[in-house]
Amino acid sequence: MDARLNYFASPTAGKALKYFMSAGKALKESPLPAATQELVALRVSQINGCAVCLDMHTKEAAAAGETAVRLNLVAAWREATVFTEAERAALALAEEGTRVADAATGVSDEVWELAAKHHDEGQLTALVMLVSFLNAVNRLNIITQQPAGGYEVGQFH
């Protein structure tokens, strides 16, 4: 499968992606725990069906020491006992922040309050930015049918 567009060969995409990559780097350096960031990235990408992001974030999380059990249970996090309360709150916010059309009201007060209970303002800000960022990146990849499977850990660092 070939991508519809080669972002790395496009001068327009190259200019825009420079800022996207910079935003992604800033989020990686945020106070939101790295494990939470990868779990959220996986869940958002699962919901959106972004194979290339699933490939990347699964491999990055595993390389950072995330267990196969937790990676495999992200899709069923509500029923899984392997996530902390803070991670569960982040995953709930990620789901409602991704499924805004489905929820009609966006992120509920209950989910927001739970996330705020477990994350300080810096972490909560990073979480909101991360969910928004991933939704944008997922769409860039899905629209252009970027192929999955060839990502190597650290490829974009």
Automatic annotation (TrEMBL):
InterPro entries membership: AhpD-like (IPR029032), AhpD_core (IPR004675), CMD-like (IPR003779)
Domain of life: Bacteria
Domain named Carboxymuconolactone decarboxylase-like: residues: 16-96
Cited SUPFAM superfamilies: AhpD-like (SSF69118)
Family annotation (PANTHER family): 4-CARBOXYMUCONOLACTONE DECARBOXYLASE FAMILY PROTEIN (AFU_ORTHOLOGUE AFUA_6G11590), BLL7811 PROTEIN
Name of the protein: Carboxymuconolactone decarboxylase family protein
Organism: Streptomyces millisiae
